[in-house]
């Protein structure tokens, strides 16, 4: 990062470890309440509904209509159980990942030797000269190793969870080394950024971004590459879809001659929309996707509010109830970021609940339409999740050093990425959920 | 998403309502999202017997998508107030997206008979030559 930095005591990093502990506790409590508490009750209900249905199947006196009704009740009970179990489990898993990310990053930095000027290079930092950073390179090497070992890593995890295959310890090594290097790179990045108070932001000196902040130009070029990634998914989907005999195509007589209703290809929206061809959709199946759409838009607004508050020179606490949540500028910025983090986390939880329902209904990744749906929406979910990991650090910085009119661009540049994720959902939601 | 002095519509909204452009943009995005979801929930326009056809849904989804995309990019990402180079950077991939869409059209089984001539290559080139 640039020069003219704050002095940050190493003890501040202990707070990251405490935050990690708090997040982990919340995750465990949520899992105990939703997954184990409500989930086990729902599982009992599901078991009862299943046994009633199976008994009815063997009973010749039960009519077809009654059997269909019991089957419907069994499916409802199963989906209800899945909702709580998957929600609880997802909250636990993302809490564990948040805690590991924040806790290890904080721990690594807390045991570093104390810096005099925010750097350990012995330079006087009270100038605007850029010192360069090895963190992005370290991070990228970690990602490279992690991805190189990822297929074996997944196989080893599957074997560990008794999902098939033979467990070989060596399969875990490459990805684990990659993850360790990623953590070192991220921790170092945080250490360089935390003392940054906004003076000496690097300015581009040549066209086409002359006079602009290099970090801002960089994030826009990165977003440009991300547009290409999502355009690839989207165009693949459109191309494949033109050959499917969907319900809409069938009704319009666009399917091949002689096609019957049995030839109709069921897309994700057929399972989710109230009048979808799978016949499983209603208000409740559409709800998670719709709520997620609103959640992303609201989270886009809360991060704008975090930046606006940080940049405000004459910020005043609001009146009424909001005063308790936003008592002063530093707390307000932090709480807006926490709100963004919570909304993004809710997005991930609802997405996995929705996926579990779709898989239970028979819409699996084993089909072409399932594959393109899960890959595209999964890639988007991964982007949201990576954003949430970055946001953990923003919350930490807002809680310790704080953001103000000088260093608020940290929120701004992350916000550009977050808005892009929202923008991608603007395309994905109608294309995959509504069409 | 940067710091720029409010001008034009932004200033007018701020003066008239006391709320900034981010607030109003958020309201517009929420409204159109509601509209988008409702278009799929209903099979008829509420209060009428007019069916919501496939093409109406397409129209609504595309128009609403454009409005929402503009609201997020122009105001939340602040492309409207930033130097034009950022807009050009953001739009650069559109060239490739259009090429991909063109490719989708050409590789469609109905490309030869169904697509309008202006978006297909000169299929008869070899025989006319």
Main attributes?
heterodimer, A: mainly alpha, 3 domains, 12 helices, B: mainly alpha, 2 domains, 66% helix
Outline the secondary-structure elements.
The complex is a heterodimer of chains A (435) and B (129).
Chain A: H1 13-58, H2 64-110, H3 135-160, H4 170-193, H5 214-241, H6 247-251, H7 268-272, H8 283-311, H9 322-325, H10 329-360, H11 368-399, H12 409-434
Helix pairs in contact in A: 1-2, 2-4, 2-10, 3-4, 5-11, 5-12, 8-10, 8-12, 10-11, 11-12
Chain B: H1 8-17, H2 21-41, H3 54-76, H4 84-106, H5 111-114, H6 125-128
Helix pairs in contact in B: 2-3
CATH superfamily label of the largest domain in chain A: Cytochrome c oxidase, subunit III, four-helix bundle
CATH class of the largest domain in chain A: Mainly Alpha
Helix/strand-derived category of chain A reads mainly alpha
Helix content of chain B: 55-70%
Count of helical segments of chain B? Answer: 6
The total tally of domains of chain B equals: 2
N-to-C CA distance of chain B: 55 Å
The rounded Rg of chain B comes to: 21 Å
Number of strands of chain B: 0
Calculate the terminal CA-CA distance of chain A, rounded to whole Å: 45 Å
Which regions of chain B have little confidence, pLDDT < 50, spanning 5+ residues?
A: none
Number of domains of chain A: 3
For the biggest sheet of chain A, the summary is: none
Number of strands of chain A: 0
Largest interchain contact = A-B, 51 and 45 residues
Task: Please state the structural category of chain B.
Answer: mainly alpha
Query: If you average the pLDDT of chain A, what whole number results?
Result: 89
Query: What is the percentage of strand-forming residues of chain B?
Result: under 5%
Task: State the assembly state of the protein chains.
Answer: heterodimer
Q: What is the fold named in CATH at topology level of the largest domain in chain A?
A: Four Helix Bundle (Hemerythrin (Met), subunit A)
Give the averaged pLDDT of chain B, no decimals: 81
């Amino acid at each position: 990062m640039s020069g003219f930095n704050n002095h940050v005591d190493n003890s501040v990093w202990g707070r990251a470890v405490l935050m990690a502990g708090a997040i982990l506790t919340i995750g465990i409590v949520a899992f105990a309440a939703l997954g184990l508490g409500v989930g086990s009750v729902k599982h009992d209900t599901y078991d009862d509904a299943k046994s009633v249905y199976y008994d009815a199947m063997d009973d010749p006196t039960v009519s077809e209509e009654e059997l269909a009704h019991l089957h419907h009740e069994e499916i409802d009970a199963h989906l209800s159980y899945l909702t709580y179990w998957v929600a609880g489990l997802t909250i636990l898993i993302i809490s564990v990942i948040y805690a590991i990310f924040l806790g290890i990053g904080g721990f690594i930095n807390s045991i570093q030797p104390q810096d005099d000027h925010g750097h350990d290079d012995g330079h006087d930092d009270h100038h605007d000269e850029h010192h360069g950073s090895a963190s992005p390179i370290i991070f990228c090497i970690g990602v490279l190793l992690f991805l190189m070992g990822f297929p074996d890593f997944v196989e080893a995890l599957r074997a560990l969870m008794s999902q098939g295959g033979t467990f070989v310890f060596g399969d875990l090594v490459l990805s684990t080394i990659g993850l360790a290097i990623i953590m070192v790179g991220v921790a170092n990045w945080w250490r360089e950024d935390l003392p940054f108070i906004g003076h000496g932001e690097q300015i581009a000196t040549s066209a086409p971004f002359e006079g602009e902040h290099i970090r801002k130009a960089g994030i826009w070029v990165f977003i440009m590459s991300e547009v290409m990634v999502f355009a690839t998914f989207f165009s693949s989907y459109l191309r494949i879809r033109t050959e499917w005999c969907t319900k809409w195509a069938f009704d319009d007589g666009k399917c091949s001659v002689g096609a019957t209703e049995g030839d109709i290809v069921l897309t994700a929206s057929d399972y989710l929309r109230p009048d979808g061809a799978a016949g499983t959709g209603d208000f409740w199946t559409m709800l998670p996707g719709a709520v997620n759409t609103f959640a992303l838009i609201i989270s886009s607004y809360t991060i704008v509010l975090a930046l606006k508050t940080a940049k405000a020179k004459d910020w005043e606490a609001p009146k009424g109830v909001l005063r308790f949540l936003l008592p002063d500028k530093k707390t307000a910025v932090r709480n807006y970021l926490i709100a963004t983090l919570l909304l993004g986390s809710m997005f991930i939880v609802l997405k996995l609940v929705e996926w579990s329902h779709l898989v239970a209904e028979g819409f699996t990744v084993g089909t072409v339409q399932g594959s393109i749906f899960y890959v595209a929406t999964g890639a988007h979910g991964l982007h949201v999740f990576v954003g949430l990991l970055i946001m953990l650090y923003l919350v930490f910085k807002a809680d310790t050093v704080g953001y103000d009119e000088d260093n608020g661009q940290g929120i701004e540049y992350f916000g550009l990425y977050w808005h892009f994720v929202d923008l991608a959902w603007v395309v994905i939601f109608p294309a995959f959920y509504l069409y | 998403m940067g710091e720029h002095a409010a001008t034009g519509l932004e200033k007018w909204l701020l003066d008239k309502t006391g709320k900034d452009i981010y607030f109003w943009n958020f309201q517009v995005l929420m409204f159109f999202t509601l509209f988008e979801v409702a278009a799929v929930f209903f099979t008829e326009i509420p209060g009428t017997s007019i069916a919501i056809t496939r093409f109406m849904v397409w129209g609504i989804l595309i128009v609403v998508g454009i409005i929402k995309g503009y609201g997020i990019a122009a105001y939340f990402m602040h492309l409207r107030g930033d130097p034009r180079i950022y807009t050009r950077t953001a739009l650069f991939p559109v060239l490739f997206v259009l090429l991909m869409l063109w490719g989708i059209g050409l590789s469609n089984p109905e490309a030869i008979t169904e697509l309008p001539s202006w978006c297909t290559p000169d299929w008869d080139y070899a025989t006319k030559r």
